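hi! just following up on the protien thing from before. the input was this:
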Amino acid sequence: MSTKVIVSYDGTGSDRDALSFGRLLSGAGASLELAYVRHAHESESSREQLAESEARALLAAGAQEIGDAGLPTHVVLSGSTPAGLRDLAVDLEADMIVFGSEYRTARGHIDPQPSARRLLDGGPIALGLAPSGFHDANGYAVRAIGAIGEDGDPCVLETAEVLAARLGGEVAPRATKDVDLLVVGSKPGAVTGRVTISAAAEYLIELARCPVVVLPRGVALEF
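and the predicted 3d structure came back as:
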């Protein structure tokens, strides 16, 4: 079964970056679905229908941008974006949620948006983090993949090797700033199946100039 990836999408530039990262992962064999979180139910039925229609139209535009009008899409009603996406991921048995970076992040850098940061602290699913401006990286090639597991977690290297094989790259002997994709594992002592990164890993993500995949403890992605 292919890895199921949910892309958080609201039509902003940062979420277009997430969409482009999702497209890259689909090239590795992942199946994509798009999700948008609405935060309130409108009291008037006409306004509720309009809000729902606008949300679905936004997701349809995202599917068109990625070149797959039949892509599954989901409008989620939740007061919290991370909670809504987490619950959707659990319901769909998804493997990863992909986010763009925070608004006004310097181009080519990663600064996880608040929803992503919430899920980086105990979330039950792998996260994909796209650099700012990634949607302009046409024809992005993955030649070198870095793997960072602080205690030699085999799931980190296993995921990096699968991605390298799928994308025609190779695992770099050292995870340096020159890699094209970075796989980061959760810290030692984290609950199995949960994402919790160390301060050192967080710093490396800040230094990254490429898309990043963050894995829950003890979980490998097969793609």
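The helical segments are 13-26, 45-66, 81-92, 114-119, 154-167, 199-207.
The chain has six helices and eleven strands.
cheers
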